[in-house]
Task: structure prediction
Amino acid sequence: MSPIISVSNLSKVYGSGFKALNNINLEIRRGEIFALLGPNGAGKTTLISIVCGIANPTHGEVAVGGHDIIKDYRAARSMIGLVPQELHTDAFETVWATVSFSRGLFGKSKNPAHIEKVLKDLSLWDKKDNKIVTLSGGMKRRVMIAKALSHEPQVLFLDEPTAGVDVELRKGMWEVVRALQASGVTIILTTHYLEEAEEMADRVGVINRGEIILVEDKATLMQKLGKKQLTLHLHDRIDTIPPALAAYNLELSGDGRAVTYDYDTKGDRTGITSLLTDLRNAGVRISDLDTEQSSLEDIFVSLVRQV
Result:
């Protein structure tokens, strides 16, 4: 199946000479949830802006559903819904009016039933006659999503969609995202809540300093780069790691009553058995132990630090 979004050799250089994007190549699969991760200033919003036709590329090509974003702008843009970071709404319009107006901007005929469904799915139906100015920040964010969905797009960009949204509303939004994916909508999201990306995404892309440094299925990424950490709680306090244990690169906790050992989940041998033997031979007694798997956030931080 051909990708719904194809980005080829894409670069963006501003008039000041700053290169925001450098030779980006990326394909987004139809119907997937793709998480684009990167630190502030990495190029996430610039990339989204170019795909959505808000900014012009300096070099390269982008196609959405086979439509070139420059040569066939109208067809490409009609396939996309965008929820930007900033809240841009007409403060004195009602929820119903502003969402309906957004549909009309894409040349779509009126469809009150669709607008009603969108508002109900986003728990906005009881606010349909409220002016935007009277809504909370979380509700305004939901209105932005409703506007993006008003013209029935096949691709939805969510740029930091849950920023400033409380936990309850955030969970509700992700239920909507799952339902949209189930209906065939492709979701591309950027987020600082990495636990959400870990829970929701099918694939993860990491961008840093304007370059894509990794694109991987989430499960494969966790398997390839995930580490496990073994914490050994000691029966007696120690001041230093015995020299005989230096090869294990153990870390001693602040109070001297625990040591941690990192091991590779994909390795043939974890080294735990030999570590326990060497600890015993060094006279270090263990009272308890536990393990912890690396999170997507740990992996992300590690990747960015390597660049």
Observations:
- The chain has two domains: 5-222, 226-306.
